[in-house]
């Protein structure tokens, strides 16, 4: 159903980014941190935070007016 | 005049009423009295005004609207004479409350019924997505509610797609429109993560669709989490109660379904901050750990060194002990040697003494040495003579002296007495 190609559907999903960022913080809060993994997650976290900020700046709300023929939908 | 059988007459009467006189049915307003339900199926009541009463009949599956005595209603139905009893009544298809008081009363009745059924149960409420990607909006496009909602939505958040379905929010089509829109979204969950059903404020009459059992049930059974925001702060419709989240106004509905980007920006900042803090902490912890390890290692090395020194000292001690022992041994050896010499000296001295004695003794056994003392050896025919009988008179004897020999003749033989 969603048309691919030139439509910017491949864009970052804000909710997913934000949730992943929160997960990373939680991960750090659980203690017992492996330094290598910590660094990886840290970089990923910074990247996610950046993506979220960019995403907030760029998107416009889109309103689609759906036309329903009410007799038929029921 | 025409003759009828009773059945024919009632049949004719009913046909005339329904087909000729009231082909579209009748709508009659009045107050309910003597309301009763028999066998859980049949509903009987009187509709009255100040001067008259009208018997009414209905079935529980048709008359969903809760009814009680005193309620001001408008009934829709068909007048009918009943064959079996000959009694006249209106067969009621639909009852709707009229007037503010009646509406309020009807509202209360329905609210109680639906509440008992569990439609407003908090346990049934679903959480809304934190960051919805698609919002299904059910509202009238001409309404202020619609534009208010979209305006606040745009002010707060941007990363969202709104799929809007236009519906009538009051009047005869409102209930049908709203139910259709909600079931449309339930059938197309890909179009909305969350639904918003909204309209502006109004009188109880205006809000009637939102207080209807049908819309309330449709809200309750929406497969997508739904926010209902109707009217002003103080308007509470039954649809509101059945919603997963109730919004007080259309603008409030927008505030509920999307976060505020300023807050989220701050939240992202704070998350980033925490992330950096956690990382620093992790590294610091690690450094402290390393310091500790280094200290442990240092201590280990120092103790190894000191133990090495101990060993060295032990070794030196052992060596000197060894040297001492060797020296001692050497001393012992020389002592032994000295002893040995002494012993051998003594031995030799003794030995030489004994040799001397021996040689003296030997000497003493030498016959020649006897001769020195004046003894002589007499030989007859070369043999030393030990017995006088061995010689004959006139025989020549060779006599050896200490110095020189003499030849002699035997003149007498004197034998020893014991011979």
UniProtKB/TrEMBL annotation, chain A:
This protein's record includes keyword Metal-binding: no
Alphabetized GO MF terms: exodeoxyribonuclease VII activity
Top-level taxon of origin: Bacteria
Keyword Cytoplasm applies: yes
Reactions performed catalytically: Exonucleolytic cleavage in either 5'- to 3'- or 3'- to 5'-direction to yield nucleoside 5'-phosphates
Coiled coil (residue ranges): none
A biological process from GO: DNA catabolic process
GO terms under cellular component: cytosol; exodeoxyribonuclease VII complex
Keywords, alphabetical: Cytoplasm, Exonuclease, Hydrolase, Nuclease
Cellular compartments annotated: Cytoplasm
Assigned EC number: 3.1.11.6
Pfam families from the UniProt entry: Exonuc_VII_S
NCBIfam families noted in UniProt: xseB (TIGR01280)
Family under the similarity heading: Belongs to the XseB family.
Function, as annotated: Bidirectionally degrades single-stranded DNA into large acid-insoluble oligonucleotides, which are then degraded further into small acid-soluble oligonucleotides.
Subunit: Heterooligomer composed of large and small subunits.
The protein, known as: Exodeoxyribonuclease 7 small subunit
Higher taxonomy: Bacteria, Candidatus Uhriibacteriota
From TrEMBL, chain B:
Catalytic activity: Exonucleolytic cleavage in either 5'- to 3'- or 3'- to 5'-direction to yield nucleoside 5'-phosphates
EC main group: hydrolase
EC number in record: 3.1.11.6
Domain Exonuclease VII large subunit C-terminal: 119-408
Domain OB-fold nucleic acid binding: 4-95
Source species, domain of life: Bacteria
Binding partners and assembly: Heterooligomer composed of large and small subunits.
Assigned protein family: Belongs to the XseA family.
Cited PANTHER family: EXODEOXYRIBONUCLEASE 7 LARGE SUBUNIT
Name of protein: Exodeoxyribonuclease 7 large subunit
Biological source species: Candidatus Uhrbacteria bacterium RIFOXYC2_FULL_47_19
């Amino acid at each position: 159903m969603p048309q691919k190609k030139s439509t910017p559907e491949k864009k970052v999903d804000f909710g997913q980014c934000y949730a992943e960022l929160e997960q990373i913080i939680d991960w750090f809060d659980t203690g017992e941190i492996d330094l290598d993994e910590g660094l990886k997650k840290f970089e990923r976290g910074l990247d996610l935070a950046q993506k979220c900020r960019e995403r907030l700046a760029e998107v416009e709300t889109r309103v689609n007016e759906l036309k329903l023929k009410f007799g038929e939908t029921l | 005049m025409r003759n009828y059988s009773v059945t024919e007459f009632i049949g004719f009467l009913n046909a005339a009423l329904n087909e000729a006189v009231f082909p579209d049915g009748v709508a009659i307003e009045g107050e309910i009295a003597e309301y009763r339900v028999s066998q859980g199926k049949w509903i009987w009541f009187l509709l009255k005004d100040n001067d008259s009463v009208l018997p009414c009949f209905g079935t529980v599956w048709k008359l969903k609207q809760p009814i009680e005595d005193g309620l001001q209603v408008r009934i829709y139905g068909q007048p009918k004479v009943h064959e079996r009893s000959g009694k006249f009544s209106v067969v009621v298809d639909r009852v709707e409350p009229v007037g503010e008081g009646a509406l309020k009363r009807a509202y209360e009745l329905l609210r109680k019924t639906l509440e008992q059924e569990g439609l407003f149960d908090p346990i049934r409420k679903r959480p809304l997505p934190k960051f919805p990607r698609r919002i299904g909006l059910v509202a009238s496009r001409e309404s202020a509610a619609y534009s208010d909602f979209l305006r606040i939505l745009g002010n707060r958040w941007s990363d969202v797609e709104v799929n809007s379905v236009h519906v009538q929010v009051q009047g005869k089509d409102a209930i049908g429109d709203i139910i259709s829109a909600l079931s449309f979204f339930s059938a197309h969950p890909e179009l909305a993560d969350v639904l918003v059903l909204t309209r502006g404020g109004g009188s109880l009459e205006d809000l009637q669709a939102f207080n209807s059992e049908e819309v309330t049930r449709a809200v309750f059974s929406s497969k997508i989490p739904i926010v209902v925001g109707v009217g002003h702060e103080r308007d509470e419709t039954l649809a509101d109660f059945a919603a997963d989240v109730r919004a007080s106004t259309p603008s409030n509905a927008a505030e509920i379904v999307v976060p505020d980007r300023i807050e989220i920006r701050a939240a992202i900042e704070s998350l980033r901050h925490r992330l950096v803090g956690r990382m620093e902490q992790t590294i610091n912890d690690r450094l402290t750990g390393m310091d500790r390890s280094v200290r442990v290692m240092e201590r280990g090395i120092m103790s190894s060194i000191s133990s090495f020194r101990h060993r060295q000292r032990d070794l030196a001690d052992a060596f000197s002990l060894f040297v001492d022992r060797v020296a001692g041994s050497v001393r012992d050896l020389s002592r032994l040697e000295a002893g040995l010499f002494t012993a051998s000296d003594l031995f030799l001295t003794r030995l030489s003494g004994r040799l001397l004695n021996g040689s003296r003794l030997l000497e003493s056994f030498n016959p020649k040495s006897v001769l020195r003392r004046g003894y002589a050896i007499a030989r007859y025919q070369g043999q030393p003579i030990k017995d006088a009988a061995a010689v004959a008179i006139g025989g020549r004897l060779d006599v050896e002296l200490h110095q020189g020999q003499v030849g002699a003749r035997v003149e007498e033989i004197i034998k020893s007495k014991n011979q």
